[in-house]
Amino acid sequence: MSGLVDKFLKSPTEWLRASGPESDVVISSRIRLARNLAGFPFLAKLAKGQEEEVIDLLEEAVSQTPALKDVFFIRYHDVTELDKQFLLERHLISREHAMDQGQKAVAVSPNEVVSLMMLEEDHVRLQVLQSGLNITEAWRITNEVINELERNLPFSFHAGLGYMTACPTNVGTGLRASCMLHLPSLVMTKQLNKVLQALAKMNLATRGLYGEGTQATGNFFQISNQITLGQNEEEIIASLEGVIHQMITHEKEARQHLLEKRKAKFEDQIWRALGVLKTARVIASEESVQLLSMVRLGVDLGFIPSLTYQELNRLFLLIQPAHLQKIDGRALGATERDVRRAELIREKLKSISV
Question: How many CB atoms lie within 10 A of CB 187?
Answer without folding.
Answer: 17
